[in-house]
Amino acid sequence: MRLPASSPELSALDFFVSVVDQGSLSRAASQHYISQPSASVRIRRLEQRVGVQLLDRSPSGSLPTEAGLELVKYARDVLSAAGAFNRAAEDLATSRDHRPLRIIASYTMSDYIFPRWLRAIGSDIPNVSMAARNAADTISGIVAGEAEVGFTWVRKLHEPVQAVPVGQDELVVVVRPDHHWNRRLRPLRPEHLAAAELVLREQHSGTRSQLDRLLEPHRPDPPPRPVLVLGSTGAAKAAVLDGVAPAVLSRLTVMEELESGRLISIPVDDLDFGRTLFAIWQDHTELSVEAEQLLQFVTSERARRMIKGMRPQDPTRDAAGQSKKIRSSSVLSR
């Protein structure tokens, strides 16, 4: 719909209604904080636009003509609709300002990394809602539109999402200091780890998926039964500290225990335990200002320095070293 060029401006209609309500051009001019000559010009231009005289002017005041009485009703309707439009726009803007930035993060991210990042972001993004899930559910949640941005350890992308790397981690085999593996003079072989009874994370967690993929070629037949299968890194770490069995966990989640000597990291030959943390979001989706701010922060050097043990990585380059700003791809959990 295209309005004709002769359509009056809202401000002119608003002033016309005020003159009718006040019965005086000068009183309406005072109400609108304009001079009387400017008020006269405004009414004259409005009459020229609509093609009819709207007011009868006299020393005693300004009264609407017959045409003015008819048109002032429509002017009130237009102004009422404009007011409703403005209120609705303000409500939408307000609700958007208070709408939380929804994030899905893997358990490792939500428990050990994001609290530090959120404290650093502070009032820049004051309203954040974060759900913790395993790696596979984090990816599927982003694909389903349940959150705007996700964070998970991933290896390869196979979903309609975009991704950018934001940090590095690695898995480590951890035991108590009194475990017999701590007396070994040589690193474990992959077949030794694959044959061991371990404390494991639940299926489809990023840690478990990566470990299963790495150990699958080395597992005996039949494979060993896990000692425990636990749904969080904290629970798995506690089991190791209690002497239940070794576990393979994110280095970021056990740094404190490794530094204090309560846990020992056991080296393993010929297994690549490294992994990359990606921020992911729906492909072909315009991100909110808050989501853009978050991505700018988590790809900054400051964010990476906050996480001890994260190896610096240029987020503008992919694994092959090729320059890129944002890489479109899809994700399989590691």
What does this structure look like?
Strands 3, 4, 5, 6, 9, 10, 11, 12 and 13 form a nine-stranded mixed β-sheet that branches. A two-stranded antiparallel ribbon has the order 1-2. It has a two-stranded parallel ribbon with strand order 7-8. It is rod-shaped, with a radius of gyration of 33 Å. α1 crosses α2 (25-31) and α1 packs across α3. It folds into two domains: 10-96, Orthogonal Bundle (Arc Repressor Mutant, subunit A); 99-334, D-Maltodextrin-Binding Protein, domain 2 (3-Layer(aba) Sandwich). The protein is of the alpha+beta class and 334 residues long. The protein has helices spanning 10-22, 25-31, 36-50, 66-98, 107-121, 135-143, 190-194, 206-215, 233-241, 251-260, 289-298, 301-306, and strands at residues 55-58, 61-64, 101-106, 128-133, 149-156, 161-175, 199-201, 228-230, 247-250, 264-266, 274-282, 327-329, 332-333. The longest helix is centred in the N-terminal third of the chain and has 33 residues, at 66-98. It has twelve helices and 13 strands. β1 (55-58) and β2 form a beta hairpin.
Beta-strand residue fraction = 15-25%
The Cα radius of gyration reads 33 Å
Count structural domains. 2
CATH topology of the largest domain: D-Maltodextrin-Binding Protein, domain 2
> How far is the N terminus from the C terminus?
53 Å
Low-confidence blocks of residues: 309-334
Mean pLDDT reading? 84
Main sheet overview? 9 strands, mixed
**CATH-scheme architecture of the largest domain:** 3-Layer(aba) Sandwich
Number of helices: 12
Give the strand tally.
13
Query: Which class of the largest domain in CATH terms?
Result: Alpha Beta
- Global structural class: alpha+beta
What portion of residues is helical?
40-55%
Overall shape: rod-shaped
Which series of helices and strands comes N to C? Answer: HHHEEHEHEHEEHEHEHEHEEHHEE
